[in-house]
Write a structure and sequence with these properties.
Structural class: mainly alpha
Strand content: under 5%
Number of strands: 0
Shape: globular
Helix content: over 70%
Largest sheet: none
Number of domains: 1
Distance between the termini: 22 Å
Length: about 250
């Protein structure tokens, strides 16, 4: 399949995913915001009201991490079953199968970008002045896209052969959520344990969003660490996917 036809296929599948999500939905776009907003409200009550955790502009802090995490978690969950859920298509038509998880990742990327105006508005409401540094968010989006796609390719390629991976992915995401500084500041992690957290592919992205939105700071070491994760996971993802994709039609 030519490169132009591959792009057309990715665009068509991504558009289909977006339309399916909003079909017969009264609230439409608002559903993309409702889940992270409800989580933010829950964590605000539990951590700020009950436990008295002192974090400046806690709502903005929560949402700047939750929106990015929702993209990551939703993409991994959908991509894990992307090959199996399209089994009839995979068995009947020869095409680059990686476009299936890619369309899921791009779909959730679209919803994440659509949520950014809400995040920026809340930041401004909490007296955070808009700055040119916020444009660096485009770099973070690109890096998260590459990292998320890489991990999605790994999960999508292995799940047809190991069907328990779908459930293990959900367990792993639940653990990873609390192992990522989303509801607590990175500074609260003990110094002797921080090096372990650096292996978390979402840590540099989430922390970079926190510092960018709350302090208008661009931390180059976080961008560099995220770049390392994105290159590593994208390379591993395509390597594993190219190896296992040859047998998809056989096992489905």
């Amino acid at each position: 399949m030519s490169l132009s036809r591959s792009f057309d296929l990715v665009f068509t599948l991504t558009l289909k995913e977006i339309k399916v999500k909003y079909r017969s939905s009264a609230l439409g776009y608002l559903w993309s915001l409702l889940y992270p907003l409800s989580l933010a409200l829950l964590f605000f009550f539990a951590l700020r009201v009950v436990l008295k955790v002192q974090v400046e502009d806690f709502v903005v802090f929560l949402l700047s991490g939750l929106f990015a995490w929702q993209w990551f978690a939703n993409s991994l969950s959908a991509s894990t079953v992307s090959i199996i859920s399209n089994a009839s298509l995979v068995k009947m038509v020869k095409f680059p199968y990686f476009v299936l998880p890619l369309s899921n990742v791009l779909n959730d990327c679209f919803h994440f970008i659509a949520s950014l105006p809400v995040l920026f508005a809340l930041a401004i409401f909490h007296s955070k002045s808009p700055s040119i540094q916020w444009m660096a968010g485009s770099i973070l989006i690109f890096l998260q896209l590459m990292t998320t796609l890489g991990i999605s390719l790994v999960l999508a390629s292995l799940n047809p052969f190991f069907r328990d991976l779908e459930r293990l992915t959900q367990i792993g995401l639940n653990i990873a959520f609390y192992a990522t500084p989303i509801i607590y500041p990175f500074e609260m992690i003990p110094e002797k344990l921080k090096f372990i957290f650096y292996f978390n592919p979402m840590l540099p992205v989430i922390e970079a969003w926190h510092r960018l939105i709350l302090k208008s700071e661009i931390e180059l070491w976080l961008i560099g660490l995220s770049l390392i994760h994105s290159i590593f996971w994208l390379s591993v993802g395509f390597l594993i996917f190219s190896r296992f994709s040859k047998r998809f039609a056989e096992v489905l």
